[in-house]
TrEMBL record:
Record's protein name: FeS assembly SUF system protein
Pfam family, one: FeS_assembly_P
Domain MIP18 family-like: 7-78
InterPro entries reported in the protein's UniProt record: Fe-S_Maturation_MIP18, FSCA_dom_sf, MIP18-like
SUPFAM superfamilies: Fe-S cluster assembly (FSCA) domain-like
Annotated organism of origin: Chitinophaga niabensis
Length: 102
């Protein structure tokens, strides 16, 4: 029987968050740089497609809310970085295909 870890559940939740301007989830877009889980505390380091993204606050709040809704999570810390800057090369193959980059 396969065990689903808390990290797996966080990753699944991030697959449900979309940039409203792009029909691909933030995980497949390559906007999530790291997920660290320890004792119910989750730290996500992520970026945006552009520093001036007008929906930055709402995306980060949605990420926080979806992580906090996972049973076993006691704290969510969503951090924004632009180092390294996001590029289209960070997208999954599926995202590139869906957006016509392949």
């Amino acid at each position: 029987m396969e065990t689903i870890t808390l990290r797996d559940q966080v990753e699944e939740a991030l697959h449900t968050v979309y940039d409203p301007e792009i029909p691909v989830n933030i995980y497949d877009l390559g906007l999530v740089y790291s997920i660290d889980v320890a004792d119910g505390n989750v730290v996500v380091i992520m970026t945006l497609t552009a520093p001036g993204c007008p929906v930055a606050g709402s995306i980060m709040q949605e990420v926080n809310d979806k992580i906090m809704a996972i049973p076993g999570v006691t704290n969510a810390d969503v951090r924004l970085t632009f180092d390294p800057p996001w590029t289209k090369d960070m997208m999954s193959e599926e995202a590139k295909l869906e957006l016509g980059f392949l």
